[in-house]
Specification:
Structural class of chain B: alpha+beta
Number of strands of chain B: 6
Order of helices and strands of chain B: EHHHHEEEEE
Number of strands of chain A: 5
Number of helices of chain A: 3
Structural class of chain A: alpha+beta
Helix content of chain B: 10-25%
Helix content of chain A: 10-25%
Radius of gyration of chain B: 18 Å
Order of helices and strands of chain A: EHHHEEEE
Oligomer: heterodimer
Shape of chain B: globular
Shape of chain A: elongated
Largest interface: A-B, 39 and 36 residues
Chain lengths: 150, 165
């Protein structure tokens, strides 16, 4: 059973994530992103960036590692085999670039029970090494209850 | 690469269209690049066991693939300061009937238009439309219509990218 008391809980930060050029290129290829700033360092630098620019949804790779804390939280009681991704949002305070080392921390922001199921919203703060905010990732998951399957 | 002239932008203007297609191989590539290895995106048997008709694309693959239209229009992917989507309908990606798993089996039509202009902050909101194109149910006589219009299903809602210019 989902435990609404867990709303607002902040989990310990995930291990820092190092953004590599190859991870950006591989992700850009996978999402069919053709902008040269994802692939060609010179093209990124011509736009004033230090290195390759991650596609706008790349932050999901980093956020996922932080969100694992919620998945593994027995006290939250969320059955992730019954989860449907409902909504995702990326707010970029500054773009994620190759060479960045980023920390991430997840908060179980909201648990809204709906009938037998629930809508669960997590917020991941991704920050640079100096602590400055880089990206906020908000993810909403619809958790079905077993009774819905009857 | 040309960049949009802020002063010329108005709500309602189209920024472009693109057709996207996904194959089983594309889903495997996204799983590897993203670290999302949920088997509903690569194993039909498992997908059916959890109540789907078969393998579906990652919602994040659809969302992630749609935004390049905005990055290219803006001239700089770093100008996309906010991007959100709601996942309304799954995108089924069946196995190709024969041949290479690189054969696309899902077609999406993407278009973007300006939804709002914030002159003070020099920000533009692009509203994206992402529709799954499927063949209509085969009811007509064979050869009655060679190329019937596809059925369009919106798979993302409130898909909005904010660009800082």
């Amino acid at each position: 059973m989902i435990n609404p008391e867990r709303q607002g809980h902040q989990y310990p930060p995930a291990a820092p994530y190092q953004v590599s050029r190859e991870a950006i290129r591989e992700f850009a290829l996978a999402v069919q992103a053709e902008h040269p700033a994802h692939h060609d360092v010179e093209a990124a630098q011509e736009l004033g960036h230090r290195d390759l620019v991650a596609p706008p949804s790349f932050a999901v790779v980093i956020a996922q590692r932080a969100e694992a804390a919620v998945v593994n939280d027995d006290e939250a009681g969320i059955d992730f085999s019954r989860v449907v991704h409902a909504e995702e949002r990326f707010t970029h305070h500054s773009p994620i670039l190759a060479g960045d080392t980023l920390s991430s921390q997840v908060t179980l922001d909201r648990i809204r029970t709906m009938g037998a199921g629930a809508m669960v919203t997590t917020v991941v703060q991704i920050s640079a090494e100096d602590g400055s905010p880089r990206t906020t990732v908000t993810s909403s998951l619809l958790v079905r209850n077993e009774e819905d399957d009857a | 690469m040309s960049t949009p002239v802020f002063e010329e932008l108005e709500k309602g203007q189209q920024i472009g269209t693109r057709e996207l297609s996904f194959s089983r191989a594309d889903l495997i590539r996204y799983a590897a690049a993203s670290g999302d290895h949920n088997p509903i995106h690569w194993n039909d048997r498992f997908a059916r066991e959890v109540g789907l008709d078969g393998v579906i694309a990652h919602g994040m693959l659809t969302m992630g693939s749609a935004v390049d239209l905005v990055s290219v229009w803006a001239g700089d992917p770093g100008a996309v300061v906010d991007y959100q989507s709601r996942f309304t309908k799954p995108v089924p990606v069946p196995d190709a009937a024969s041949g290479s798993p690189e054969t696309p089996t899902a077609r999406l039509q993407l278009s973007g238009k300006i939804g709002a202009v914030d002159a003070e902050q020099r920000r533009v909101r692009i509203d994206l439309s992402v529709e799954l194109l499927t063949e209509p149910a085969a009811e007509q006589e064979p050869g009655a219509e060679a190329d019937p219009d596809p059925v369009r299903t919106k798979v993302l809602a409130k898909s909005q990218a904010v660009v800082q210019l």
